[in-house]
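Incident log, support desk, overnight shift.

02:14 A customer reports that sequence design results differ from what the structure should imply. Their input is reproduced verbatim below. On-call engineer (initials T.W.) acknowledged and began investigating.
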């Protein structure tokens, strides 16, 4: 029961912060959406900030694990699986944008705890993509290259593509960027 209450708080906090930003997230709405009283929240978290940081870290880690690390755990078709995930519009919310980028833009300059958390999340994101590229190199899908730089370029391009689609309201902007990115990555293939 306790774990279920904590998870409901995490889920509700993540959705509220993702939709309204940290500063716009209302604790009363989080508690109402979680179906939890304020006293129960304090059993798990000291305040809204602690709850928001936990929600961001746990939900983003879950997304990366599902989206990127699952690809790296395979034994082949790393690039094909990666590209398929990039093209899947159901994995992204272009109306709200990237949850990590939103928090970075809102909070990284005004709160060191958020800044530190976002740096760690971005580092994990880049590392996950690098692992996919390393695996692709190891099985001959890509020629030997600087996979760290390729991962940096890839993650930066993806973040920009998501922001472009959010700004324009047109998911085709994202897809156009992704197709250019895929063409670039494919230039590292053998032959």
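02:41 Re-run completed on a clean worker. Output:
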């Amino acid at each position: 029961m306790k774990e279920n209450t904590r998870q409901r708080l995490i889920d509700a906090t993540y959705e509220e912060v993702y939709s309204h930003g940290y500063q716009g997230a209302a604790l009363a709405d989080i508690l109402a959406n979680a179906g939890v009283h304020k006293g129960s929240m304090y059993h798990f978290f000291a305040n809204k900030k602690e709850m928001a940081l936990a929600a961001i870290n746990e939900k983003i880690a879950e997304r990366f694990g599902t989206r990127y690390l699952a690809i790296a755990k395979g034994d082949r078709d790393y690039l094909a699986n990666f590209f398929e995930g990039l093209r899947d519009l159901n994995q992204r919310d272009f109306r709200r944008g990237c949850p990590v980028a939103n928090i970075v833009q809102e909070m990284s300059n005004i709160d060191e705890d958020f800044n530190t958390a976002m740096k760690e999340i971005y580092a994990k994101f880049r590392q996950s993509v690098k692992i996919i590229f390393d695996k692709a190199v190891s099985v001959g899908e890509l020629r030997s290259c600087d996979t760290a730089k390729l991962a940096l370029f890839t993650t930066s391009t993806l973040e920009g593509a998501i922001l472009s689609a959010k700004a324009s309201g047109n998911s085709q902007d994202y897809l156009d960027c992704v197709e250019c990115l895929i063409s670039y990555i494919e230039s590292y293939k053998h032959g």
